[in-house]
Amino acid sequence: MTRGGRDKDQDGPERRCIVTGEVQPKGGLIRFVIGPESQVVPDIEGKLPGRGIYVAADRAVLGQAVKRRLFARAAKMPVTVSDGLDDMVHDLLTRRVIELIALARKAGQAVAGYEKTRDWLMSGEAAVLVQAADGSERGKAKLRPPAGKNRHVTCLSAGEIGLAFGREHVIHAALAAGGLSARVVEEAAKLACIRGQNDGPMPSERIDETHERY
């Protein structure tokens, strides 16, 4: 297996999941590479050298890849898979989404808090609405995401969104149009799948929006 260099078809828009055999856009897949000590390494940003091995962003599918030793088959060599690989992917994706939102904030492309988010939505400046999975449903229903597909991110908790803005917690945020917002949406969609939130968040606790700090 080639460990140095890049995928020869890296720029292609689609890849095949080693478990399901389905070909789909890279945005719905987790990329893995084989590290220098033959370990399976999640490549969340898609920048690590080596031939990519792709698995659908789904805990059950990822579990099958490990159980059936499909990473070794795809790599055509013995490999080492760390215990809790699915948890590792979850944590890396969570960190990535938070970091991307933080980058958008630093670039002036993101705001937090009900009032600012509402103003951006009303003015048309907001391209994406971000709302905490554990925020009150009644409070969140007061804001509608911009029209169009993939304009609503709901997989993060209030504490996780808060990390991106340097606050204790944030329930409502908005992102302006641009490359950063598109990346947030793509990575958040993977995270939602890993968290089993494909059909919407089902948090055990809800945070009342009146407790949000502005």
UniProtKB/TrEMBL annotation:
What InterPro entries does the annotation carry?
Answer: Ribosomal_eL30-like_sf, YlxR, YlxR-like_sf, YlxR_dom
- Top-level taxonomic group: Bacteria
One Pfam family of this chain: YlxR
Task: Provide the YlxR domain boundaries.
Answer: 15-87
Signal peptide stretch: none
List, alphabetically, the NCBIfam families matched. Answer: PRK09190.1
- What is the designated name of this protein? RNA-binding protein
Q: What does the organism's lineage look like at the top?
A: Bacteria, Pseudomonadati, Pseudomonadota, Alphaproteobacteria, Rhodobacterales
